[in-house]
Amino acid sequence: MSVTSRYRDAWEGFWSEASGDRGAVFWDAEPTLTAGRHLAHFEPHLTDPALPLIDLGCGNGTQTRYFAERFPHVVGADLSAAALGHARHADPAGLAAYRQLDAADKAEAETLHTELGDANVYVRGVLHQCEPDDRQPLADALAALLGERGRAFLVEPSQEAKTVLMDLAQGPAGPPAKLAPVLRHGLTPGSVPDEAVPEYLRSAGLTVLASGELPLVTTEYTPDGTRIELPSTWVVAGVA
Fold it and tell me: For the Methyltransferase domain, which residue ranges apply (predicted)?
């Protein structure tokens, strides 16, 4: 199974229009406020930090490059060729490798696993953007990437975050400038019940090893200058 052409085209259109400037995209916050905070919860559960680390849904690679300074072999994987173009352009030294990947296609994940072996995988805000029929296939593909030794860290906006986003989009001045392109390309976050995330993972044969809550920091601000943060939940999973 692979993602629909509508979904693929939506992401390609979004990243083709997006500026290559750091922080220009709604979720492209500084790594110290995103991946760095997540890594503090992820690292204690890694059975082998020397395994390749895959940043799944890497977008323009801001978090990927952060990981590449801390792990020996990092791969940024994304559905969008335009996103990967931004990532490679921002990484002239080649700190990380980049790979186009349909994460809802288990066969593609198995091919990458054959090349890399077991891997640790970081997934930030990907599952909630998937169309409903793609969520379990994505979890199945994630399990294929992990193999027996890998660990996954997933962080997703909680159900409460959808209310925050809807309020922002429907404000008197319209959606904030960095949120507007997301909505215009039909990438409105889906409603994934908080309890569904661990269930997708369990159905893929994985065990939830840890979980918690953290604010998901964005690059956008309210009119009064407050940075917009979305409630989110995180889980660490792998083969027990």
Answer: 54-150
Nearest to 8 by CA among 130, 110, 97: 130
Q: What percent helix, strand, coil does the chain show, rounded to 5?
A: 40, 20, 40
Closest residue by Cα to residue 53 from 94, 103, 101, 96? 96
Centre a 10 Å sphere on the Cβ of residue 213 and count the other Cβ atoms it contains: 12
Which residue is associated with the tokens 């220009």? 24
Q: Which two tokens mark 155?
A: 């962080």
CA angle, residues 154, 99, 28, in degrees to nearest 5 = 50
Task: Give CA angle at 238 (72, 135), nearest 5°.
Answer: 105
**How many CA atoms lie within 13 Å of 99's alpha carbon, on the beta-carbon side?**
20
Whole-angstrom distance, CA of residue 197 vs CA of residue 237: 11
The CA distance from 197 to 136, in Å, is 9
pLDDT, tens digit, for every residue of 125-179?
Answer: 998 888 888 999 999 999 999 999 999 999 999 888 888 888 888 878 788 889 8
**Which two tokens mark 65?**
């490059």
Both tokens of 40, joined, read 């503090």
